[in-house]
Amino acid sequence: MLLATWKDSLTQLLTQQKHSPGHLPRIAVLGVGNPFRSDDAAGVMVARALSDRARAADIDCILVIEAGHAPENKTAELRAFSPDLVLIIDAAEMGEMPGTVQWIPEESIDGMSASTHSLPLSMLAHYLRLELHCTVTFLGIQPACTEVGESISGYVRQALDEIVDVLNALIISRYQTAA
After folding, report:
1. CB 99 within 8 A of CB 159
2. Which of 120, 52, 55 is nearest to 88 (CA)?
């Protein structure tokens, strides 16, 4: 179950994004993970579901990327988009109950990630901040299993559905209304 503080923090983060009058902040959602390692696919699954909703809404200030296990390969796409905020979503071993969703401080991200990334996510965040002058945040989902396999556990599936619903309500629906 997602804690209210997660949703509240996201709402606060979105309202803090600076933008000029008449222009909404540009938000990129980067779904990270390996779809062949069970719950490690969590970030990718969120991106897939959110991408369909974002395309249907046809909003040009939201970019959703399925980054897989090598999100650094998507930096050109991010650079072209020029986001104000990059939200990285990934499975993370946090020592919590499966399906728990939490914000992860950047200094903790590399020791917590369940995925095997080509480049540490903290290095990617540092690069994005320096090169794109944007805010970068990490949202972790506690996996139940990261063994080889393509099935997502029920706990993580429930968390994914809620994350997609929250992001849809706070970003896509809000932006669609403002457009």
Report:
1. yes
2. 120
Q: Which whole number is the average pLDDT over 102-122?
A: 67
Residue 70 token pair: 């090598």
Superfamily of 27-178 according to CATH = HybD-like (3.40.50.1450)
Give the mean pLDDT of 48-69. Answer: 88
SS3 call for 120: coil
Kindly state the tokens that stand for 117.
């990334």
CB-neighbour burial class of residue 179 (10 A; exposed 0-12, middle 13-18, buried 19+): exposed
- What the block records as the tokens of 35 is 């779809």
Residue 20 has pLDDT above 70, yes or no: no
The structure tokens listed for 57 are: 């809404």
Contacts of 42 (CB under 8 A, 6+ apart): 33, 89, 90, 91, 141, 143, 152, 156, 159, 160
The whole-number pLDDT of residue 146 equals 84
